Amino acid sequence: MSTSLASRIARDPRFLELSRKRGSFSIVLSVLMLSIYYGFIAIIAFAPKSLAVPLTAGSVTTIGFPLGVGVILAAIILTGVYVVRANGEFDALTRKIIEDVK
After folding, report:
1. Which residue, of 15, 32, 81, 99, has the fewest CB within 10 Å?
2. Cα-flanking dihedrals φ and ψ of residue 2, to 5°?
3. Helix (H, G, I), strand (E, B) or coil at 91
4. Going along 1-102, which residue ranges are E strands?
């Protein structure tokens, strides 16, 4: 990509909008995932006995197992949310910017 093309793209108001939207969306999802993960770790560190409670009376599976699986599923779901938005809104805006600048 030539320097002049890159500078025209960087000055395009839609590129600035794309950068702002993508950045803020990424930050929101990152904060959400980090909150889920560190919340789970905080429970492990400060209240481990609460995770040792059996799911049902006489069960060997504790509440900690589904919560741990929930953390993993949250990561997968949040990744999917980002991919759907990136493939839809962000890619469409990127194509428009490139078409108009060329």
Report:
1. 99
2. -75, 160
3. helix
4. none
What is the C-alpha to C-alpha distance for residues 71 and 73, in angstroms, rounded to an integer?
A: 5
pLDDT at position 54 is 95
Which letter, b or e, does each residue of 35-67 get, where b requires 16 or more Cβ atoms within 10 Å of its Cβ? Answer: ebeeebeeeeeeeeeeeeeeeeeeeeeeebeeb
Residue 18: both structure tokens together: 């794309």
Instruction: Work out the average pLDDT over 33-47.
Output: 97
pLDDT of 1 strictly over 60: no
Q: What is the mean pLDDT of the chain?
A: 92
Lowest model confidence (mean pLDDT) among 5-9, 32-36, 43-47, 64-68: 5-9
Number of H helices, E strands in the chain: 5, 0
According to the model, what pLDDT value does residue 99 have?
85
Six-digit token string for 58 = 């006489």
What residue type is assigned to position 66 of the chain? P
